[in-house]
Every structure is written in C-alpha cells, then in structure tokens.
Amino acid sequence: MSEEDLRAELERLRAENDQLKNKAVRGLSLKVSEKGGLSLYGVGRFPVTLYKEQWRKILAMAPEIEDFIVKNDSLLKTKE
C-alpha cells in the first residue's frame, strides 16, 4: 500500500471509530411498557421502567444528581 492509501485507510478507521463511540450513546431507546410505564433500554442488561411521574421527578433532580456525582466522584465507580 502506498503512503496515501495508508493515510486514507487510517482516516476511514478513525471515522468508523468515532461513529461506533457515538453509537454507544445513541444505543439508548425508549418504549411504552405493557402497563403504561416508560422503559429506557440500553443502560444495562434490563430496561429501567418507571411511570411518567417518576421520570419527571428524576429529571427535575438532574442538577442535584450531577452535583452529587461531581462531589462524590472519588467514591463512585465507572462501568464501561
């Protein structure tokens, strides 16, 4: 392969890598459950299902949750 071909292949692989990284975040999806709850898929092995009022309470707490994560960063683990 010429140097130009190698550079093109490297650029293609970088673009593919970026796309795969972004796809992991976009891998989240929502669905209405049989009982009328909102299920969030893609966070773990099983969906997280709550009713809309529960989701709204959690979403309203988003700044507090983010602040808590920042303050307790050294104690919290990261799952990849």
From TrEMBL:
* Keyword line: Coiled coil
- Domain of life, source organism: Bacteria
Residue stretches in coiled coil:
3-30
What is this protein called in UniProt?
Uncharacterized protein
Organism of derivation: Tunturiibacter empetritectus
**What are the leading ranks of the lineage?**
Bacteria, Pseudomonadati, Acidobacteriota, Terriglobia, Terriglobales
